[in-house]
Write a structure and sequence with these properties.
Chain lengths: 523, 251
């Protein structure tokens, strides 16, 4: 056992260390931001009050301790849920990797050939998970103690760490159970991640309704501990008992099932391609779908949360000088207009990411040694590439629409959907320019494709530095977004949009022509 | 070395002299390669390659790793452009007219990579493309190679991934099969079935261009052989009785 555990530690020394360091670093960084975010009691209270609207509660959990609010309470209320999700994901990957994953690769078979108990390949990863979760709990608790923002207590830090470690253990145990039930690692992943989503949703709904049913969800349990306020450590039992139950059932199932099989047999896939998959869009959509859906969902949720702030906008901005400066920098406008214009100018950059990803996607096919199979078919490269570009084009529009719907829903009827969709679509030419640069790169310098992210990041940095200290205009002009009229606080101008669109068309045409004629990369 | 070349040349010339009439009347070449060179930066991957492959033949293409086999195949598939010289398939330029050329060729790479979330059956249909899917042919070759098409790409072994590409190739209406070490992942039984299919395709009048490093396979299958070394075609043999001797003396 000890030997196998050491072997797991050896295999995990990189990836688990990265998780541990990332979570600890996030705790250190985000906690240390709070004294500047909420320097006075009034601001702390204002922020906490604004977090009380249903959309925010659904996203991050209930607000507690308003009467004795401290930066530590608001920090935990706003950030804890994200660490919980991170640690859940870490444990799902960790356990799947060492149980069903290894079984799939036939590694466990190799191990079982040795004179060891059949339980060891199941128990050892669990023990490792317990150790790593304990270390993460300890590191997070120490992290908040070290930063020591106002309101930090020893008991609070302990609850903070144990909440994270407890949720980690819960998902390690649950994944261990799923690893006995499903016969493929993708099946285990799906079941585990669906459970994460489901548990998050149960908590969100229950928290909005202020229902005790939130304790069904491990996330709800952790948030109900009211870290840095009532620090209800006994609630940890709601994490530990289910974990023990999952582990018990997992070991029982493990002892009765055959090696290599699960309780649920693998479903055979399709023997033939559907008509859609055979169409020119089939492969492009198959490859783009996961990214498109994830980005679409994420942008919609961001819109929803930005929208939900609208009701408390006045109190939120009144207490924040930097926000006032940014929102009202464009001249005398209503606060709402300024806010909406700001959201769209930020989100236009975010929308560019999935669009860029879609324009670069075909290059993956070139470098994964599928190129010969794909490119020896009687189809031109342009015909193969075009569906990816149409998907990118569709994404650029859909993302703004999803953002606008999210904003309008979150705002609760303050915004007119048709109008704000229009504000978003005005940014399209700049988003297309990023996509067009992607096509140009695929055509001319695919090996240097990371340059586009450098370009993207620099425009992002330039824009936000410019808010704080004005930069020389030759620098700001590098950013295609500065040419876009920021609706509704600026007037609509068609000329810059036309120039951006024509530039994009030229870059895309050049990229496509070159792509048809260049050597494909060596796999 | 020199002696060997003399022996081989004499063997070739003698054959040319013997049935010169048959040679020129029946032979229509499907692949024509003229003075083909390819440079990657400072590396000369192919140097003045000349090769002509006849219709209905099974042409073995032998050479050690790094000799330029794959580079030549990639040029024939229109994936990379030659630096100089030209290559034609069915009389059409392999790069400029590649879409026309591809209508009548099928390719199987040495290392088959599949899309992890598509099943073997889906990939076969995708590779064949609309209008070229013939269920009878597909099912026939699925049986020949004993392949389960309902599994996802990521769960196939190397041999099974290769079978997916082989089924897609053989079920296609191609006139020319270009195969890059196609049996490297197959077990002996499947290798034998593969050889039977190739021979049958030849009887149907199809041509196969097969790269390999397995001498015995080429010996059993090929009607002509060329040998590539350091980017140059060393020899094209039509009389395979000398093949073993050639390799023995080359060491």
């Amino acid at each position: 056992m000890g030997e196998y555990l050491r072997f797991i530690i050896r295999r995990e020394r990189r990836i688990s260390l990265i998780w541990l360091l990332s979570i600890t670093a996030s705790v250190l960084i985000f906690t240390s931001l709070y004294p500047t975010l909420v320097p006075t009691h009034a601001e702390t209270l204002a922020l906490a009050t604004s977090m009380q609207n249903p959309a925010m509660v659904a996203m991050m959990g209930p607000v507690y301790g308003l009467a004795q609010i401290t930066p530590a309470i608001i920090m935990s209320q706003e950030t804890l849920i994200w660490y919980l999700i991170a640690v859940a994901i870490m444990n799902i990957f960790l356990i799947t990797r060492h149980t069903r994953g290894d079984e799939e690769f036939g590694r466990i078979e190799l191990l079982l050939a040795k004179p060891i108990s059949v339980r060891i390949p199941t128990l050892a990863p669990l023990i490792f998970a317990i150790i790593i979760n304990a270390i993460i709990a300890l590191a997070s608790a120490l992290g908040v103690l070290i930063i020591n923002i106002e309101g930090t207590t020893f008991l609070g830090a302990l609850s903070f760490g144990l909440a994270i470690g407890g949720v980690g253990l819960y998902f390690a145990a649950l994944t261990l159970l799923f690893a006995q039930i499903f016969s493929t690692s993708s099946g285990v992943f799906s079941a585990s991640f669906i459970t994460v989503g489901l548990m998050y949703m149960i908590r969100a709904l229950a928290d909005v309704e202020q229902s005790p049913l939130t304790l069904i969800s491990p996330f709800g349990v952790a948030l109900q501990m009211e870290v840095f306020y009532s620090n209800r450590l006994t609630l940890l039992l709601f994490l530990l008992l289910p974990s023990l139950f999952f582990i018990d059932i997992a070991l029982l199932l493990n002892s009765i099932r055959d090696h290599g099989s699960g309780l649920i047999a693998q479903r055979p896939g399709k023997r033939r391609a559907s008509a859609f998959l055979r169409s020119p869009f089939g492969l492009a959509w198959h490859l783009s779908k996961p990214s498109t859906l994830a980005w679409g969902g994420g942008i919609f949720l961001l819109g929803l949360s930005y929208g939900s702030v609208i009701g408390d906008l006045t109190s939120f901005v009144e207490n924040n000088e930097l926000m006032q400066q940014i929102i009202l920098s464009s001249g005398p406008n209503t606060l709402l207009d300024g806010y909406v214009a700001l959201i769209f100018s930020i989100m236009a950059s975010v929308v560019s990411v999935p669009v860029i990803l879609s324009t670069l996607r075909i290059y993956n096919e070139e470098i994964t040694a599928r190129a010969e199979l794909l490119f020896s078919r009687p189809t031109s490269r342009r015909a193969l590439y075009t569906p990816f570009l149409i998907i990118a084009f569709g994404e650029s529009i859909m993302m703004f629409i999803l953002l606008a719907i999210g904003l309008a829903l979150g705002g609760g009827g303050v915004l007119s959907l048709g109008e704000i969709i229009g504000y978003g679509l005005a940014y399209l030419p700049a988003v297309w320019l990023f996509g067009a640069v992607g096509v140009f790169i695929v055509g001319f310098i695919p090996a240097l494709r990371s340059l586009i992210w450098l370009f993207f990041a620099s425009t992002f940095i330039i824009t936000y530095t410019d808010f704080i200290t004005p930069l020389p205009s030759y620098l700001t002009k590098l950013n295609p977004f500065v040419f876009i009229p920021h609706l509704p606080v600026e007037e609509f101008k068609i000329l810059p949009l036309l120039i951006l669109t024509i530039s994009s068309a030229l870059l895309i045409t050049g990229g496509l022509v070159r792509y048809e004629n260049r050597d494909l990369s060596n796999g | 070395m020199d002696l060997l070349f003399d022996v081989l040349s004499v063997a070739l010339i003698r054959r040319d002299e013997q049935d010169v009439s048959v040679w020129y009347s029946s032979a229509m070449s499907i692949i024509e390669i003229h003075n083909l060179s390819k440079r990657f930066g400072k590396t000369q991957a192919l140097d003045q390659v000349n090769l002509s492959i006849e219709e209905h033949s099974i042409h073995g293409f032998l050479g050690p790793n790094g000799a330029g086999k794959t580079t030549l195949l990639r040029i024939l598939l229109g994936i990379i452009k030659p630096t100089s010289g030209n290559a034609t398939i069915f009389g059409q330029d392999v790069f400029k007219d590649r879409i026309e050329v591809h209508k009548n060729i099928a390719y199987v790479p040495g290392e088959v990579n599949l899309w992890p979330n598509l099943t073997g059956g889906e990939v076969i249909d995708l590779l064949l493309g609309n209008g070229r899917i013939n269920r009878i042919e597909i099912n026939h070759y699925l049986e020949v190679f004993e392949l389960d098409p309902s599994k996802k790409g990521k769960t196939y072994s190397k041999g099974n991934r290769q079978k997916v590409a082989l089924v897609a190739a053989f079920a296609s209406p191609a006139e020319l099969f270009i195969l890059d070490e196609p049996t490297s992942g197959l077990d002996p039984l499947m290798e034998q079935r593969f050889q039977q299919v190739i021979k049958q395709k030849q009887q149907e009048g199809k041509t196969t261009f097969l790269s390999s490093h397995i001498l015995s396979e080429v010996e059993q299958l090929a009607t002509t052989v060329s040998i590539i070394r350091e980017g140059e075609i060393h020899h094209t043999l039509t009389d395979l009785t000398n093949l073993n001797q050639y390799f023995q003396e080359e060491g």
